[in-house]
Amino acid sequence: MTSTRHLLAPHMRLLLSALDNASSCASLNANSWDCLVRTARSARLLGVLAARIGQAGLTGEIPEAVANHLGAAEAESRYLRQMTLRQLAAVAELLRPVGTRLLALKGSAYVLRDSTCAAGRMPRDVDIMVEQSRLNEIEQALLAAGWEYEKTDPYDQHYYRAWSHELPPMRAPAMPLELDVHHTILPPLGRLRADAQALFAAAVPVAGTDWWTLCPADLVLHAAVHLYQDSEWIGRLRDLVDIDGLVREAAATDPRFWKVLGTRAQRLRLGGPLWYVLTLANDWLGTPVALAPGELDALQPREPGRALVLALSRRCLAVGDPEGESGWRDRFAYAAMSLRANWMRMPPHLLLYHATRKFLRSLRRERGQTLDT
Amino acid sequence: MRDGIGLDFGAARARIRSDVHELGNVLADIYRSFPLEEPAGFFDVTVRLRRGRGLRRYLRSQIELVFDGETLFAPFPADTHLPMLEWGLNHVLAQRLGFHLLLHAGVVERDGRAVIMPALPGSGKSTLTAALATRGFRLLSDEFGVVRLSDGLFLPLLRPVALKNESIELIATFAPQATIGPRFPKTRKGTVAHMAPDDDSVARRHEPARPALIIFPRYDPGVELEVEPELPSRAFGRLAVNSFDYEMLGPAAFGAVSRLVSSCRVYRLVYRDLDRAVAAVRELLSSCR
Q: Does the predicted TM-score (pTM) go above 0.80?
């Protein structure tokens, strides 16, 4: 499939090119660096960019002002990695009496496994998964240890418990990262269902810790599902970059990876999201896709608006121009993809109810934080 | 100012774009000693002030700050443009300059020695910093103590000094020669005005300074003057807590603050009269190595 990268705006082409081939940054002028750093920062990919530039051995050849910012991003990423590990250790310690298997998800899993895609990441939270039957005990143990819910609105609490695959986000004093406790990877009433038991059955332990993670194929599937089901479609390019990293690393480590991924996607019926992300990742990031001939096509989602969803996804994934503002087309794409995600995650009557409540609430809430020194 | 202007504060450079035309004159006034640069090239932060969209533009005349396409804050009335720009810049600079240790402190320098005044509430740090800056001390910053991690030197991040409420008249009286910009009465912090840095401070904004004296100031109308040495261990804690990126920098920050506290004399200063406070600081400084 031919790439659509050349159709992207200059700042996006610059970012993708730099991520693709960090050595190409050696020839950038000051204006280009300005654009690249700002775009990467907007996409929360500045740390990843910095890591790749460092790996390419370029650090000594870039302007000092630029190197400073890259260095700061790397320092922040190292700090967040450290905090992730600390939080995981603390949570494992306090949940040990419950005696159930603890899975780390997404960024937390990447850090535990020391995945290549963990380098330069900037997580905002720690995601874990436990068996649904033990969820109450887990929750009680966390609350007893001083963890608190961020959203205390009773509607939010009800929404999370009744319709979602996770508890409301929790926070502890002196822990900079939110804790999201999942019991499965997809909303339980959604159109796509996850087989949590199958995920647990294929999980792998992380040596030297109390933690387990999903197996390599499932990590990719979860990242794909997270990208497509998450209702906030802004700033998701970093998820695609994660998927690219996961796929490349798994394929290099395990010659059977592609076969396993294809089989697993079929077994868990998550071929649709996988098709979307592999298509996009191959298009923009050059991710090698080595599924058996016809297997990629076989994964294609059956929904009729495939091409439209792909087009809208591209529009959402493209980072906004740091100089400009999102036009109506971008805002429409975000709204459309968010609506689709919500459509996927709950039945229509609940969706209507939820959407109405959110809308009414947004009318009352002041936009943004107030500027206070 | 649509294309923008560049401003070099020393440790950071900012690009400012605005379609709020009243802002241009005011900026030119308080940044009078700064060379205005072309907006091309690499900048540490880019900010745009933009008139509120849609009905807001006409009904309530609001503006918003946009940093790289993102509005971080709620819109604010157009007639508080300068204070909001200055506060917005502070907020973003505090997040962006994580390649230095950033203390929340006022910093001035004299005779090659820097005085660091951490910004605890009630300290009157900005007022004291402004006062010192008008009495023969070079101004590095009234908000950020920028510590270069490689050698522990303080770097200027030179901006106009934000004065609030009574401090405005106090400094205007104390230093009639100082350039103080327009008063903005309706901000969240009361009335705010900005004192322009003097020519010499601006000219030397790329000159680092060696720390010699740490002073924890406190304004107290009931106390004439009190100067007491402060324990290094307490100073360490108070500095670390009053930093924007101490936690993020981890061991590097620990090392930098340790070395800072070891290499400086540390005092608590309680004052009510600026002249006496300035004299006390001069005396303390002269007794430093």
A: yes
